């Protein structure tokens, strides 16, 4: 994966702490019954990852990495809640105007996430 020079080693500990917090939040998904006729498809617009990282004093690139973990958590919750269709809007045409380094980082991150064998196993187990 592309590692931009802007990412400093000293912020990796902050990222790991943030990722642990996100993972812990999604460990105990609350019970929620969704009548099938009312909610069959949930669409999520992923926004604010860079701002969230900056608010934590981390490099904005780390916000995208944290966003992947949130997507995993939402996916697990929707599976538990039996919401059968889930859409994530993760990239807009405006995003292509960003710095090439950031675009490369996000595209590499997406490719790695989509190749993740654990994720694929989870998705296919619950078809």
UniProtKB/TrEMBL annotation:
Domain of life according to the entry: Bacteria
UniProt-recorded Gene Ontology molecular function terms: ditrans,polycis-polyprenyl diphosphate synthase [(2E,6E)-farnesyl diphosphate specific] activity
UniProt GO BP: polyprenol biosynthetic process
Keyword annotations: Transferase
One Pfam family here: Prenyltransf
InterPro entries tied to this protein: UPP_synth-like (IPR001441), UPP_synth-like_sf (IPR036424)
Protein name stated in the entry: Di-trans,poly-cis-decaprenylcistransferase
